[in-house]
Design goal:
With 444 residues, this protein is an alpha/beta fold. It has helices at 2-18, 20-41, 62-72, 95-104, 137-160, 169-187, 191-200, 203-206, 217-229, 245-273, 276-281, 287-317, 326-350, 354-372, 383-388, 394-406, 416-439, and strands at 51-57, 77-80, 82-84, 90-92, 111-115, 126-132, 230-236. The protein folds into two domains: 51-236, no CATH class; 245-439, no CATH class. It is 64% helix and 8% strand. A hairpin with a 5-residue loop joins strand 3 (82-84) and strand 4 (90-92). Keywords: Cell membrane, Membrane, Transmembrane, Transmembrane helix.
Length: 444
């Protein structure tokens, strides 16, 4: 009995080892995914970076220039203060133009900080304006928190040294002493040490960090102090009354669309092994018609799945806020289903066995979902990947189209770029798949 069992196990090992590609993918896929998630959640990148922030300097003063330099020193942000004219000349951003970018290019620019002419308040502090699109709650909280922390920790000394407030050395010494006592009272540190740090210029540059303890009354105290110095008027551009679950609904719908359609397209192997193709080809049908029928079926299946999942999201999370969203949602879903079907057929044309198709499909689907914004917000991905890899995934464009409709109430015209890219991906990928099928042995 034992010899029989060992012989059967040996047979399974030989069958598995004969498909070398499947063997490699069995180990390569988890390795790559571990690397991807480790880069994002392991902290190797030092936190979010490269989040685009538009800055309009209406004050045009030495103080405003220093504030901008302070913001540039923060790795979390990528500051834009100028725009290029058609002639190639670079000019400072204006309020109207910068605000329009948040409307017309909302997937790229979601934050606009304005330094108004009355940047310095009459009493003591800064007047600031922030226009923002909180497409993702986590990103929005991080951006606003780091923005306030950076301005307060490094911008506060600008107020103390600003001659417009007429702060003499004696007045500043008295102010520093009172401030040290207040901070000591609320945060429990030694006032003499705090005063020494303030006078040396090191206190505000490093005392308030993202990891500082801030619970209970300490949070209230720091918030009161911050609000008194930085008067920031905030205006939400998009998403009022929207459910942040829009991103989750769209992301998971796209990812499982890819899994479903890749599996459906891989059924070509089963039909080949069962001899269905040879019997069909004995009739009036030809190879091209068989492949097109598979594409149309899978695209309709994917469209149905997208519609059902979005309607489920509406029932559970109330993600659809207007009937005007239905048509653009349908068109984006159709384009995404077409691109996903073409992707599945390409996998089937490249792979030689179902095991290869499933392994390669899992690897590519999870990779595209991670880099395309389906699994988690794009700002969590390293900037290099976000810039040079994400836009080349169909998940990126499907997510961008869905969020444009669900979050920004974009109409059909506004989502035409995303729809066009998805249909272009479908055409190119399907053409390659059909060419591969003609050269392969699927119909032999």
């Amino acid at each position: 009995m034992m010899n029989t069992l060992l012989a059967l196990v040996s047979k399974e090992l030989r069958v598995f080892w004969n498909d070398r590609t499947a063997v490699v993918l069995s180990f390569l896929v988890p390795m790559v995914l571990i690397t991807i998630f480790g880069m994002i959640f392991g902290g190797g990148g030092g936190g979010p970076s490269g989040i685009r922030v538009l800055v309009v300097d209406e004050a045009n003063s030495e103080t405003s220039e220093k504030l901008i330099e302070i913001l540039r020193s923060e790795d979390t942000f990528r500051i834009f203060t100028d725009r290029s004219l058609p002639e190639g000349e670079s000019v400072p951003l204006e309020r109207e133009y910068a605000a329009s970018l948040l409307q017309t290019d909302a997937s790229t620019y979601r934050y606009l900080l304005i330094l108004p002419e009355d940047l310095l308040s009459e009493d003591f502090g800064f007047n600031l304006e922030l226009l923002y699109n909180p497409q993702n709650t986590i990103e929005n909280n991080i951006v606003q928190g780091i923005l306030q922390k950076t301005l307060f920790s490094q911008g506060f000394p600008l107020l103390l040294n600003n001659i417009e407030y007429g702060i003499t050395d004696s007045v500043q010494d008295a102010f520093n002493g009172d401030l040290a006592m207040i901070i000591s009272e609320h945060f429990g540190a030694d006032p003499d040490e705090i005063l020494e740090e303030i006078n040396s210029g090191g206190f505000f540059g490093g005392a308030f960090s993202a990891d500082s303890s801030a619970e209970g009354e300490e949070t209230d105290a720091s918030d009161d102090l911050l609000g008194g110095v930085f008067n920031m008027e905030k205006t939400q551009v998009f998403g009022k009354g929207k459910n942040p679950a829009s991103q989750s609904v769209g992301g998971w719908a796209v990812m499982f669309l890819l899994f479903s359609l890749t599996g459906a397209a891989s059924s070509l192997f089963e039909e080949r092994d069962q001899g269905l193709f040879l019997r069909i080809l004995a009739g009036p049908a030809n190879r091209t018609q068989i492949l097109w029928s598979k594409f149309i079926f899978c695209a309709l299946l994917g469209l149905s799945q997208m519609v059902v999942l979005i309607l489920f999201g509406e029932v559970v999370f109330d993600v659809i806020t207007s009937w005007r969203q239905l048509l653009p949602l349908f068109v984006v879903s159709l384009a995404a289903a077409s691109a996903a079907t073409a992707f599945g057929m390409l996998l089937s044309s490249i792979a030689k066995t179902p095991a290869q198709a499933n392994g390669l499909g899992t690897f590519l689907i999870l990779g595209m979902s991670a880099f395309g914004g389906a699994m988690f917000p794009l700002f969590m991905i390293p900037e290099t990947i976000r810039t040079y890899i994400s836009p080349f995934t169909l998940v990126y464009w499907a997510m961008d189209g869905l969020l444009a409709v669900l979050w920004r109430d974009a109409g059909l015209v506004q989502v035409l770029p995303q729809v066009g890219v998805l249909f272009a991906i479908a055409c190119v990928v399907l053409s390659i798949a059909l060419w591969r099928f003609r050269r392969g042995d699927l119909f032999r």
